[in-house]
Amino acid sequence: MSHEAQIHDAQTKILRELLFIHETNFADLQRVSGLESDHAKFHIKRLVELGYIDKRNSRYKLSIKGKEYANKLDTDAGVIERQPKVAVMLIVEREHGGKKEYVVQERLKHPYYGYWGAPTGKVRWGESIVEAAARELEEETGLIGTFEFRGINHERVHHTDTGEMVEDKIFNLMLCTDATGTLLVDFEGGRNAWRTLEDMLSEPKRYKSFDQEMNAGIAGGAFTEIVEHYGGDEF
Question: Is the pTM of this model over 0.85?
């Protein structure tokens, strides 16, 4: 897992300038930075050290790493854009006792402490959606299975106490009907169980979007967008 370095405002200005040109010289970068020569040299040198800028024969241009980073800039505001998180939601189904049951988790960490819902997980950099679903299934439940993409749910969550948007996630709804292995019940951060959808209707502390997300994923071909509100100790 990689972490991007925090950069100075002057460095952001320099990267923004290089985003729109092939290469340039020190004088032009100093001008856009708004700094004296020594300070501008410090920040340009820092960007070279971070691997965001390549220097060759007194000319500067964005490196491959710098292009990827600078492409995230809101070029009007001069800041890195905050974007929705991409995740998978695992709809794991089995036939048991003549009924369909699904793996659900009680979340025992914040936020949403104590809420029940389908297992979810973030998609890692460079990972396919199917790979992410298979990995999360094994990590979160101890089961192994194959997944079919069933749709997209874009979920935005606002905190009722402040009105602030606290989550913005794009869930890839993934269905698995061939899971094998023994379900891992207790793990750090939660516990798993096989439950029917009818049983989950009586669960008072299930995610507010649970019913809609599960039905969309089971039916397939889904594209849904949900805005939910949580307040107090709910989030």
Answer: no
